[in-house]
Fold this sequence. Notes:
Layout: E1 20-23, H1 37-48, H2 62-71, H3 78-100, E2 107-111, H4 117-126, E3 130-135, H5 138-151, E4 156-161, E5 179-183, H6 193-204, E6 211-219, H7 224-230, H8 237-253, E7 262-269, E8 274-281, E9 285-289, E10 292-296, E11 301-308, H9 312-322, E12 325-331, E13 337-343
Parallel strand pairs: 1-4, 2-3, 2-5, 3-4, 5-6
Antiparallel strand pairs: 6-13, 7-8, 8-11, 9-10, 12-13
Helix pairs in contact: 2-8, 3-4, 6-9
Amino acid sequence: MNLPLNIPGLSIPLPPASPQFMDLYSRHKAQPPGLALSSVQELTDGLRAPAASVSPKFFYNALGSKLFEAITKLDEYYPTRTEAGIFEASYPQIAEALAAGGVRSPCLIDLGAGNCAKAAALIPHLQPRQYVPVDISVDFLKDAAGQVQNSFPALDIVGLGMDFSSGLVLPEEVQHHDRVFFYPGSSLGNFHPDQALQFLQHIADPAQGKARGLLLGIDLVKDRATLEAAYDDALGVTAAFNKNLLLNVNDLLQSDFDVSQWRHVALFNQTQSRIEMHLEAMSELTVRWRGHARTFGAGEHIHTECSYKYTLEGMAALLQQAGFRHVQHWTDPKQWFAVFWAAV
């Protein structure tokens, strides 16, 4: 609670002792430094699998986060500006939808917060009592949370450095009352639909996520050319973003990937309704890291991301299956993107 300054005739609230920051991602240090043992095993298992893969969460070291910011400004990358346009046109209706469900001044939990810019635009409309940005890129998030605190000095902020893709267990510092989860940017599309359902069920479960509702941004199915251009831009920023994952893996595993030996590949898998990003070996090569080695043949891939694209009906059905109700959405004139509000 903010305490007023004791000045006769003047009551000025003191700022809270925030932003608090809790690094739950690298709290339990392991060798190599800064990486949890579970992540070491996850990376090793993925690289040694018959069809090699690395989770897209490993895109987001400090450089990767900055490269993704650059991607969002590219002409080809429509999701960020399209989603922003939907929010800009719909802030009053979104606030009304929450109020109609009895949710006012929520605890706003921002999943994959990044630079926190989307939440910063939302905060004046929802007037949260607490803001909880969550991201795997710890140092990047610390700076972003501090910037939000500068913009909203009286707001209680608890930043969480966390890999929520492997389990969303929030600390006691996060308020239980009127939790609203904010998951913009269509990041839910990085989950396989079965995993997405489990994730949504966890949020909706009164014993786990304890959500009153979810505000979700989701990319919609559209033509192949538009989708593939968004993930393979002419400037090559997305290619650099994808290759930087290998530099992050080098730091985390002390491996010896040479990014010059790999090519960025992006394609739309229409059968699975998903964009896929891969790194393709340009010649036969061997990668080594502690106690392990893997030879890749020329043309062999490391699968680095899936981004599933949904229909409006398909996403509404998934939310309802997960336990949400009163599902409603807003979209852009082209129906390229949608923002959903789903109450529990």
